[in-house]
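Reopening this one. Same input as before:
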Amino acid sequence: MNETLVAIPSRLKATRLPDKPLADIHGVPMIVHVWRRAVEARVGRVVVATDSPEIAAVIEAAGGEAAMTRDTHTTGSDRIHEALSRLDPDGRIKVIVNLQGDLPTLEPRLVQDCLKPLASGGVDIATLVAEIRDLGERTNPNVVKAVGTPVDEATGLPLRDAGQSRRLRALYFTRATAPTGDGPLYHHIGIYAYTRSALDRFVSLPPATLECRERLEQLRALENGMRIDAMIVETVPLGVDTPDDLEKARHMLVQKG
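Same output, byte for byte:
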């Protein structure tokens, strides 16, 4: 646990839901709910990386740790890299989880699942996917699809029997409906675990061609020969982007009670 950092990038510049991290969910700011879920995962130190004194204040009031960063970052990866550099200049932290700050209903075990592919070695970045069950999501460009080949859960080596696999080696990510033909489609869940060297390299790379075309940051890694593996999980956490999403989150957290 001393070698793992869970970093939650957070800012106040959302357009569809202004001041989103501070949105009230049963008397608690949303970012505090996410911080709590990360702590409950019990995988390592948890830090909220932010350029907002208001976000830092609510996290610290809840007993958490906030790291102030510049307000010029365009991606969460850049923000957590700055926080990491300040918090651990000696390089003791070896694995960094990038956890989005708009997932208040996140199941903590998903953070644990995201780390699993890194254990076998040879993987730069780990993430999560879930099989698409809703037919409408197959053609929805807002649902990012992961295209991958099955690999052994423990070793990361290719498998002949795809039915036995709970892990994929990612070949591509797209907003289109892919791949074609019979078989499952997978919804990509935007939680990432990086080795430290992979994060250092990733943020040093310029935006790539397909990354810009698809508007998917993770394609920068694939276009530069980095390996991304994804664990297959059963649930997709609710990402809060709109007022309707916020109401859903409030309802779900009451149900979990």
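So the earlier flakiness isn't reproducible anymore. For the record, Residues 148 and 170 are 4 Å apart (CA to CA).
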